[in-house]
Design a protein that fits this description.
Elements lengths: L1 H16 L2 H19 L6 E5 L5 H7 L4 E5 L3 H11 L5 E4 L2 E3 L3 E5 L9 H4 L18 E7 H8 L3 E6 L5 H8 L8 E6 L10 H11 L6 E3 L4
Parallel strand pairs: 1-2, 1-7, 2-3, 4-6, 7-8, 8-9
Antiparallel strand pairs: 5-6
Keywords: Methyltransferase, Transferase
Pfam families: Methyltransf_21
GO molecular function, one term: methyltransferase activity
Length: about 220
């Protein structure tokens, strides 16, 4: 539990250090997320892509909503299971959320072994992400999320996406998916600063989604 408390404390500290436009946008995103949480309850559905150790999965689950959480890193998934695995309203999926079904390499930080509980949050399918170790890939399952979303045949109140760069191809695919309109709010952590090759595509996606009303897409979360 100390790890989860530390993560919350660090997030609060980093948020307090932000200034200017970025700070205003980030705080507005956090307020929007808290508002979205307040509207969840039994009978609603929230999805957590990139659940990591379950900090936000647990917050979503505490509302009484049904929660589906994806996490591909085996170490993170074991901590996620320990945290929320016994909750009856939570479904955990040990896989990456991607464009299509398949297998994919997952990369970890070069210093992963020094503090695995903390370093899992950086694991990515992009070997060129900052501080990744391209020499030790871990093959994991990937589930095609557009088809998964269509198969749910259900409204999604909140979709949280923190998948270390893979948000770009996924959102590109979801914008072509009619069922994406069944999602009310999307909260994304983007990673163009640490995967520079994604910068132009991320800017384009932000422009395309800026005026959407269904779903409402927030790129300033975290």
């Amino acid at each position: 539990m100390q790890l989860f408390h530390t993560l919350h404390t660090e997030a609060d500290y980093l948020l307090s250090r932000l200034t200017g436009r970025k700070a205003r946008a980030r705080r507005a995103a956090f307020e929007a997320f808290e508002t979205a949480l307040s509207r969840l309850g039994p009978g609603t559905l929230a999805i957590d892509l990139g659940a990591n150790v379950g900090v936000y999965t647990e917050r979503l689950a505490e509302t009484g909503a049904d929660v589906i959480a994806f996490e591909p890193d085996p170490h993170a998934f074991s901590l996620l299971q320990a945290r929320v695995g016994t909750r009856p309203n939570v479904r955990l999926i040990p896989a990456a959320a991607g464009v299509a079904d398949g297998r994919i390499n997952l990369y970890r930080r070069t210093d992963f072994d020094a503090a695995p509980d903390r370093r899992t949050s950086s694991s990515s399918i992009f070997s060129d992400k900052h501080k990744m170790d391209p020499g030790r890939p871990h093959e994991v399952e990937m589930i095609g999320f557009p088809d998964f979303l269509a198969g749910l045949n259900r409204e999604v109140a909140v979709l949280k996406i923190d998948i270390e760069g893979a948000e770009v191809p996924l959102i590109e695919a979801l914008l072509q998916c009619p069922d994406f309109a069944r999602v009310d709010q999307v909260f994304i952590e983007s990673h163009e600063r640490v995967v520079r090759a994604l910068a132009a595509r991320t800017r384009a996606l932000k422009a395309r989604t800026r005026n959407l009303t269904r779903p409402r897409v927030n790129w300033d979360w975290h």
